[in-house]
Amino acid sequence: MALKLLFWELEKHLRSSSGASVVAIDNKIEQAMDLVKSHLMYAVREEVEVLKEQIKELIERNTQLEQENNLLKTLASPEQMAQFQAQVQTGGSPTGAAQPPVPSGTAQILPATQSSGASA
């Protein structure tokens, strides 16, 4: 909005002063360019801050998922790991709808978002 106002003032000034010097015109153009530059720099700084926050959140989420993955690997039986590796190699989804039943007497491991106990 301020940029439009500046250009409007510049245009009005140029029309009203047909004998205006080139220096005055150059000064107005320079002012307009400085204003554009400051607005762009402000917008870029804002966007950088937003992206930094998103990166921080993604790093935290990645760390959480790596910890959960390591825990699940340590708790999985060799048979489960072999089955998982086979699914990965064939391109199947290990988290698909066809989950093998949990044998009786085996504790079922819930994802961290579903567990009701304290987290590690």
Describe the structure.
The structure is a single chain. This protein has helices at residues 2-16, 22-75, 78-90. The longest helix is centred in the middle third of the chain and has 54 residues, at 22-75. Residues 101-120 have low confidence and may be disordered. It is built from three helices and no strands. Helix 1 packs antiparallel against helix 2.
Summed up:
With 120 residues, this protein is mostly helical. It has 3 helices and no strands. The chain is 68% helix and 0% strand.
The first-to-last residue Cα distance is 53 Å
Number of strands: 0
The percent range for strand residues is under 5%
Global Rg: 31 Å
**How helix-rich are the residues, as a percent range?**
55-70%
Give, in order, the helices and strands.
HHH
Low-confidence stretches: 101-120
Q: Please, how many helices?
A: 3
Q: What does the average pLDDT come to?
A: 78
Q: Overall 3D geometry? A: rod-shaped
Q: What key phrases describe this protein's structure?
A:
120 residues; mainly alpha; 68% helix; disordered C terminus
Question: Which helices and strands, and how do they pair?
Answer:
Blueprint: H1 2-16, H2 22-75, H3 78-90
